[in-house]
Amino acid sequence: MNRIRQFPILGAALAQGLAAIVSLGLAVILAGRMPPLALVFVVLAVQVGLAMAVTWRLRLPVWWLWIAALFPLALALVLNLGSLPAWPFGLAFLMIYLFFSNTARERVPLYLSNRQTAETMLGLMRERKAKTFIDLGCGFGGVVRAVAGEDRQAYGVETAPMTFLIAWLLSRLARRGTIMRQDIWATDLSRMDVTYAFLSPEPMAQLYAKAKAEMAPGSLLVSNSFAVPDVEPSEIWELSDRRKTQLFLYAMTGP
Ligand SMILES: C[S@@+](CC[C@H](N)C(=O)[O-])C[C@H]1O[C@@H](n2cnc3c(N)ncnc32)[C@H](O)[C@@H]1O
To answer: Which domains does the chain carry?
Structure first.
């Protein structure tokens, strides 16, 4: 289960695999007993429904439910590729780049902290009377907007073009927080009381080294879901949300 939490793509593959066994079995049983179009519809509906149910049962983040639903439909489209125009695929590719450009480059996909996590971060800032906060790789900026307040400065940095644009616009409209199109690794953390990240297992060792080198003693690094390898966290908070979000807290002691 922990492995699936760290690599949700394993859970997504399991969900599609289990659903495929049932839906293909059903296709064999029903073949010839109903019109072909109705058969395709039933098989697709079973595949999508089961894949979503398994994804839900595995407590994967909500956006994996969308993947579970869209994957069989995308596959059906690709199998009919020859008879379809090419431009929708070009457009889909562009959209994927604009939102997910960091997935291949940094091995960090786009998934978002839920409301409970954002509220927990706000509570943590209040409890510590912390004044400065940054979300490294802020996605659509939800946590930044939740934490920002009159007596607290909240920043977010993001490099995926469309994701940044949406975060920047939402932040401007709400007048909460400051969103910058900036790389995590070029961001100075020395003024931050709390640095928050929800990335992937891949950059955690490098991120901890950066935080340790730059953040002042007494400040805090918080990682959503992904622990720093071989470093004991100061605290682990488990939230009572559906996915039982774990927050790993690392108290900074200076370089
Ligand atoms: C898993 S999402 C988390 C979004 C947000 N922090 C939240 O909790 O809702 C990670 C984000 O980090 C961004 N990201 C990954 N590597 C980055 C980098 N080197 N510089 C800036 N942003 C990066 C991705 O584009 C993605 O939007």
So the answer is: 2-84 (no CATH), 115-251 (3.40.50.150)
